[in-house]
Amino acid sequence: MLKSSTKMPDPDVSRYAALLRQQYIFQGLNDAQLAHVVTRFQRVEKPEDGIIYTQGSTGDGFYVIYQGSVRVTKVIDNQERQLRVLGPGDYFGEGALLFVRPRSDSVTTLEPTVLLRLDREAFTDILELLPEIRMNLSATSESRYLAQKEKFDWLGDDEVIYLISRKHEFFLLTSLIAPILLSVIALPILVLSFSSESPFFSTAGLILGFLGFVGSILLGIWNWIDWGNDFYIVTNQRVVWLERVILFYYSRQEAPLTQVLAVNIRSSYLGRLLNYGNVDVRTFTGGIPMRHVNNPKRFASYVEGYQSRARRRLKENEADTIEKELKKRLEMKKEPPPRIPPISKKEELKPKKEKRDTLRDILDTFLKVRFERDGIITYRKHWLVLLAKTFFPTLAFLSLVLLTGAWLYEELVTDGVGFSALTVALVLGVLYAAVFIWWGYHYLDWNNDIYQLTAEQILDIERKPLGEEQKKTAPLDSILSIEHAREGIIELIFNFGDVVINVGQTKFIFRGVHNPDRVHQDVADFIEARRRKKQDADAERERQRMLDWFGSYQKHQDKLDESKKTSDWDLFPG
């Protein structure tokens, strides 16, 4: 039986219930259960910069943000670092209560904030009566712990991780079968090697058994780490699949929540029994296939829930802005428009664009694989790509240096005779010039293959020295998903790889770029900035259209009121 609360009802309790029902951790509760949970919460109001709790303090409450926002910080190496910013609908404080430990972080308000608080006793009672809430809260707490531990550098400043999931533990166990079998085979060989009377078989058995046993341990450790390196992540902005294979592969695929069309789940019979499956996050380009996800229904619910929440928050913010603009227009006094001073001829003249020095431009960007100018980021391929292109010219140059050294040694030390010094010098000069031109051609070929990122589009430019130029462009608005990969130990060690940008049915591939993770993040940041700018412009136009409509309506209403005041009856004095 659910206990009924004896507290006086809060007039906003129905709004609290609507807020909680939007959260995944409370989904699935019937009306009676949700009503019980809501009535156990207490309303707490905090001013700006109000301290909710501090790091190291005793956990005595679980909080849901009703209005306002908070900042979560943690002292690491004697420095306070901001972990995340939470807003309406977010919850915090569950970790200390679930695992009976001191607070691992501090929380303060960024503005006047209204919180819904469960004390320890109410929190424990609800988890005992509704254990599914405990499982959901545990998943959140583990995700936050992993986010702090892994330190994902690609997260934006205002981006918050809500859920991190991994492959099901079943696939970790299956990956350990081979190491276990190898150790089972290696141990008897080791035992038999000690009992063998033949020195050959004893030595061979000892070596094979030792190598097999050590190899099984290393393979088991490698498989365990490899399983732990794959993450499926939901943030307040995007869905991310992070896949890493030690020493061989690194990849990150993602899609903005606004571009997600559907989330599909496919599970086998065994998957349904063990609670794992494949989650396919569908976008215009096909989607992001996530394999063997632990608790796929929970992951899909988080994606769908936070996508809906982001849309609701956008509508609420837009409604608030319209209300403020409308109130401002209603309160405006009718004043003559301000006099705009005439523009002088000097002001009419547009400033001349600074002409760049081509030679200086080349020197400033010499061997740079990433540089930014006038808001445009330019990427070149990695230095190893340049080294591969110029390998033979460099080898020829080194050979010439050795040949020059041998000739000078013969001329100066052994007084060798043969060709005249002038002839040899001319021949060497011609060879040096030819090698320099050869090397310069390949450098220019590397230098001219660039990828650019502007505020509105991406560009893939390829120019052959003294040859043709090919240029591909695509607007940022058309980008549907981004992914990148580093394959092989060389790419992982030297940190370069390919960034794949899906534009409709076309793929833009930034091949061999340095630090593909940063390139990926640059593109994602530009897309988000472009989206926000366009969204703000569209919202501003819609607001102005509505306000103009309201102003026109108000004018007609004023004229109607005025005509009623000056009716024919008003011509006769009372």
Please characterize this protein's 3D structure.
The protein is flat and about 115 Å long. With 574 residues, it is of the alpha+beta class. Among the domains are: 151 residues, Jelly Rolls; 58 residues; 166 residues, no CATH class. The longest helix has 50 residues. It is built from 17 helices and 23 strands. The N terminus is likely disordered. The strands form five sheets. The protein has a seven-stranded antiparallel sheet, with helices on both faces. Strands 16-17-18-19-20 form a five-stranded antiparallel sheet. A hairpin with a 3-residue loop joins strand 18 and strand 19.
Index terms:
single chain, 574 residues, alpha+beta, seven-stranded antiparallel β-sheet, five-stranded antiparallel β-sheet
Query: What's the number of helices?
Result: 17
The pLDDT mean sits at: 81
Shape: flat
Distance between the termini: 74 Å
What quaternary form is this? single chain
Number of strands: 23
Task: Kindly report the spatial arrangement of strands forming the biggest sheet.
Answer: 9-10-11-12-21-22-23
Rg (CA only): 34 Å
Topology:
Blueprint: H1 13-21, H2 31-40, E1 42-46, E2 51-53, E3 61-67, E4 70-76, E5 79-86, E6 91-92, H3 94-98, E7 106-109, E8 113-119, H4 120-129, H5 131-150, E9 161-165, H6 169-175, H7 177-195, H8 199-228, E10 231-235, E11 238-245, E12 249-256, E13 262-266, H9 269-274, E14 276-282, E15 288-294, H10 296-331, H11 345-348, H12 358-364, E16 370-373, E17 376-380, H13 383-389, H14 391-412, H15 421-448, E18 450-453, E19 457-463, E20 469-475, E21 479-487, H16 488-494, E22 496-503, E23 506-514, H17 516-565
Antiparallel strand pairs: 1-8, 2-7, 3-6, 3-8, 4-5, 4-7, 9-10, 10-11, 11-12, 12-21, 13-14, 14-15, 16-17, 17-18, 18-19, 19-20, 21-22, 22-23
